[in-house]
Design brief:
The protein is of the alpha+beta class. 17% of the residues lie in helices and 18% in strands. A two-stranded antiparallel sheet has the order 1-2.
Length: 101
């Protein structure tokens, strides 16, 4: 399952992050202790920095199952302004990369 997630995500899915897939953790979109399943459609790759932001910093991350877009909301409820992150879908179209965290 991790290999499939890495092939799909190709790195941290946080908008603007360019951390490589080797530096990522599997993040449950619904926490496993709240009944979230360990299912490829319910997991995304996040680098450790952004994974901690979600769990300890109270940021919210959402995956649109129809488009694969990831959007982030700040702890105060405002959207993270870099825009959505798209998954890698073909060899010619890769997700946007940047270095802002």
């Amino acid at each position: 399952m991790r290999k499939a997630m890495h092939a799909r995500d190709r790195g941290c899915r946080w908008p603007g992050c360019d951390a490589p897939v080797a530096w990522t953790d599997a993040h449950h979109l619904i926490a496993w202790f709240l009944g979230g399943r360990t299912d490829i459609d319910k997991l995304i790759s996040l680098c450790r920095w952004h994974h901690v932001k979600v769990h300890e910093g109270h940021w919210t991350i959402h995956l649109d199952p129809t488009t694969g877009e990831v959007t982030v909301t700040r702890p105060d409820g405002t959207p993270y302004e870099l825009g959505p992150s798209l998954p890698h879908t073909t060899p010619t179209r890769t997700r946007a990369c940047g270095s802002i965290r």
